[in-house]
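@channel anyone free to eyeball this complex?
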Amino acid sequence: MSRRSKLLETFRDLVLNEGERAATLDAVAATAGVSKGGLLYHFGSRAALVDALREHFEQLVTEDLERMRDEGHSPSSWYLRTTVDYSSELERTMAALVRIAPAQEGEVRDALRAARDRWHQAIVDEIGDEQMATVIILLGDGIAYNAELEGGVAGSDSRFAGDREVEHLEQIIAGLRTIRNA
Amino acid sequence: MSRRSKLLETFRDLVLNEGERAATLDAVAATAGVSKGGLLYHFGSRAALVDALREHFEQLVTEDLERMRDEGHSPSSWYLRTTVDYSSELERTMAALVRIAPAQEGEVRDALRAARDRWHQAIVDEIGDEQMATVIILLGDGIAYNAELEGGVAGSDSRFAGDREVEHLEQIIAGLRTIRNA
DNA sequence: GTCTATAGATAGATAGAC
DNA sequence: GTCTATCTATCTATAGAC
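replying in thread with the prediction:
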């Protein structure tokens, strides 16, 4: 991994683990084992770190949707199952952006909204039901929220954000679609 | 409203509107129209502001549950309908605590978890179905997440967090419970 | 209770050596 | 590309006048 990527990952993890306030240039540099000058060579300002994180997120979302399509996954199932994997790069990057969004100009929030709408559309295309698609998106957001509350443990079997929970959700959604299609 | 309450509210709104990073003692004092010394008389440190916000949240949750019970509301419906009202003191206080949670000791996260579990239990007591109760909690969390993404507009008719959306959710949940009870 | 003044630490960022 | 040194602004917090 390039040094630049390593620094961006360190920034992201500090935002997630210690909060936006603790993710200072000093902290990023020290955690990544580099001097502040070294960090500032790759990212000329703190805002540049945020920008790079957003750009990385947009790329990850595109890759996620491409992979979903190329491997022929069901969008609704794919969305719930990838959302629950809080250890993935996509989920961690998105969670970090959600944290810092209010302090940023509109671009970060725009990127988050755009990603949500792309997933929503993919699910609508699959199941042809706007409201059910919204339910699935909301459930995914709820899972992510609760995963964060538990400290973001990957593969957790928490009552609110575990693997088993997703299986229950899928059964419930399957039941729902049955009655709505009847 | 007491000056102390006014200052706490200002801190909370700064966290929500500008982010944790911008909610400094200087900013709180200036926004509330008081000097920094005046602020520090009421809250001896920044940590004291966070503590007071958490205590206020715990009290609001208790009042919310008492009101729900005393007025005889359906817990699942009450939860979804109060969650969508992003302008309420409870929702704003909770959202602010979610923002600052990672930077805090365990107490803030404990309070958030405890509140979630109290609402979950109330819904389980109503509908007698653990998994459906979890679905309702997750939908509520998803609504809150999306309300934040839209800037927390009260009474919004957003596709993801509006009043009409909650009516759809309630119809869907009602349908679900019908088939699960059959 | 509220203020001003100020201390001491830390923030983001620049300059220039290597 | 990475470092040290340093500047300036801002942050939390204290002291003490009113």
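from a first look: The mean pLDDT of chain A is 92.
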